[in-house]
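Hi everyone,

Forwarding the result from last night's run.
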Amino acid sequence: MTTVSLAGADRRADSQRNRGALLEAAAQAFAEGGIDVSADEIARRAGVAKGTLFRHFPTKRDLVSEVLLDRLAMLQAAVAEIAAARPPGLGALAELMSRGAELLAADRSFFDAATCEGFADERLERAKRELQAGLDALVAAAQGSGEVRADITGVDIVMLMMAATNTCAPAHAAQPQLWRRYLALMIDGLRPQSTTLPPAVSTARRAGRRVRRDGMRAGPTNP
């Protein structure tokens, strides 16, 4: 190998190390402070110049998306592992929700990014669809066992995990495990029962849009 080739290999190795350090620093910073943490702070934690950060991730959106993709991959792996190892039923869903909520409880970035449409891109949308498909299959199998109510979906499972962890977020420093209490209550609510749930969020939004459109077509109502 020539001197030029060796130099090029060293530069590529340095670039990979810097990228890895930036992703690790960003994941930690976002987990602690949410996605509004500055690029300066991330570069400082990674031990690189700010310009190095932007060479690897030209925009803040690129960096957030990369970290969020890693979190989604963790959840996807948990779904696949539980589906393969556990018999269908409430226990499988309970394990997934506990593992997922444990990840989310210590990571503010997931909730921030998941609820911020400005950070969506095709890779994220594809990862979300794949996660939802896995969750829907896990839920359907649990429903088939007769242990889980018939009117929930995979999206409900994610929303419940996020609800339990983010409701308790203000108390996280003093009571970091408080979310487990409320998650247990939510898991208990997945058992079959006669209560009818209101429409899912997406259904309600579509209905709201139809009402507004119908109202505009009908014009103002006379008193």
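Residues 203-223 have pLDDT under 50 and may be disordered.

Cheers,
N.
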